[in-house]
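Objective 1b of the project was to move from sequence-level analysis to a structural picture of ligand recognition. The entry below was assembled by the postdoctoral researcher (A.K.) and checked by the PI before modelling. It contains the amino acid sequence of the target and the SMILES of the bound compound, NAP.
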Amino acid sequence: MRIAVFGGTGGTGRRFVAQALAAGHQLIALVRDPAKAPPAHDGLTVLTGEATSDQGAVTAAVTGADAVVSALGTERTWQGVRAPTVMAEATARIVTAMREAEVARVVWLSGLGVGDTLAEVPPLPRLAYRALLSRVYADKAAGERLLRRSGLDWTLVYPVMMTNGAPTGRYRHGERLELRGVPTVARADVAAFMLGRVTSGDYLHKIAVIAD
Ligand SMILES: NC(=O)c1ccc[n+]([C@@H]2O[C@H](COP(=O)([O-])OP(=O)(O)OC[C@H]3O[C@@H](n4cnc5c(N)ncnc54)[C@H](OP(=O)(O)O)[C@@H]3O)[C@@H](O)[C@H]2O)c1
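Corresponding predicted holo structure:
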């Protein structure tokens, strides 16, 4: 498949790119800083532009793709304050581009705790999310409202806390999961799960919670 990737320079995005290339897919990655691009590969085209503001670059990345994947996150600014509008802005650009380019399938990395799913987070991490991530998660929720209303073939992937551990292939997933303590899941497993959703097309118009 030809897959347009946003956030391919991030922790999960890089793993997604590496796994998708290894599986023989063609990837187009839009990055802000080419110096951070994933390693060169015959199957990888890197485009430079801002996913939040450069509609032309976003549309160019998406045009001709069979599916779109977002592993975008929210950067910390130099003041140490998280910018709260990245996801809402990027989602609007990507939805517009997908409509223009007539690309329907999108697999979007979000996080358990966004919107109504905060109630599903076990008590200890829920406290931390409320204290530290409420603005970031409000931005994610705003972007996701656009996605849910878009008419596109979306799947929202909701991992619990992610780690940089090796892929296990033994994670659980479902629209809801029973969770206790401080659940975690490896970014590499999340990337593999996302690639599986791109190629299988399941969890259509659904969220998929993922945890060890
Ligand atoms: N950390 C966790 O435990 C956890 C748990 C559940 C869900 N999540 C969510 O999973 C997603 C991926 O997490 P991660 O840790 O893999 O992400 P990450 O390493 O922080 O990477 C974030 C990606 O988003 C890009 N990005 C950030 N700000 C941007 C902006 N203003 N414009 C364009 N691109 C921008 C980054 O590009 P640059 O490389 O150019 O900065 C990078 O590619 C995030 O949405 C995160 O909230 C995280």
